[in-house]
Amino acid sequence: MFEGVPLTWFLITGTIMFFVGIYGFLVRKNLITILMSTELILNSVNINFVAFNKILYPDHLEGMFFSLFIIAVAAAEASVAIAIIINIYRRLVNIDVEKMDEMKY
Amino acid sequence: MTPNQLMFAIFSAVIIIFSILTVTSRRILRAATYLLFVLVATGGMYFLLRFNFLAAIQLTLYAGGIVVLIIFSILLTSHIGDKLEQPDLKKIIPAFLAAAAGMVITVFTILKHNFPQEVAAGTDRTDIRVIAKSLISTEKFGYALPFEVISILLLAAMVGAIILAKKRND
Prior knowledge:
The structure holds two protein chains of two kinds.
Chain A: H1 7-27, H2 31-56, H3 62-92
Helix pairs in contact in A: 1-2, 2-3
Chain B: H1 3-24, H2 28-48, H3 52-77, H4 89-112, H5 128-136, H6 144-165
Helix pairs in contact in B: 1-2, 2-3
């Protein structure tokens, strides 16, 4: 049981974090900062899942398992994204999204 | 103010302030450090909600793994002294408007919806034995299939990352 903090507070924190991530995703040009914005978005979703789980259904664990799988997917995504970024840097000596305007051929 | 509310206020303030700093900081290494603070505060929020196992995973995998990976790639791909160029206003204003509009709509919807006010009664089931049994169970509320699928996904991501980042001699 968890008392004292209403569910809406958690949801509002998650919402603010999510849309800050969206803003960073739209504004930033460096690929790594875009990746960091993606991590913010994934984390805000985790907060929502966990808060719903604990406050509305404390005798289930579904929200926790969803967060667990989201964290695993985020780890896989970050590793592949960084491999791609390093590959791009090796070819173009730059990781600016606006300078990447050609594909392999 | 109860202790729960106080801790929630601290974690929430850290999350909001440092996530804004993460997307606005012009030094990329500092942005990564602010992201680390956000992730640690999120882990604190899981501790507050008594999800001890999830909080440990958050700290080791996110704060310990992904942030270190990001910092290594920053060190490989950019010069430390460099500042990122300021994005022009033509780009900031639409992005800010889109994010603010989305935030206003979502917060409005959350506040308007009637969530059950009293906390649902129930026993805490965050015991590590329960978690472990659910992860390998094929019964109802069992997660054996997603567990196996995620292991294959992680293997594929590992192989893919090695092949992509490998030096090719063509």
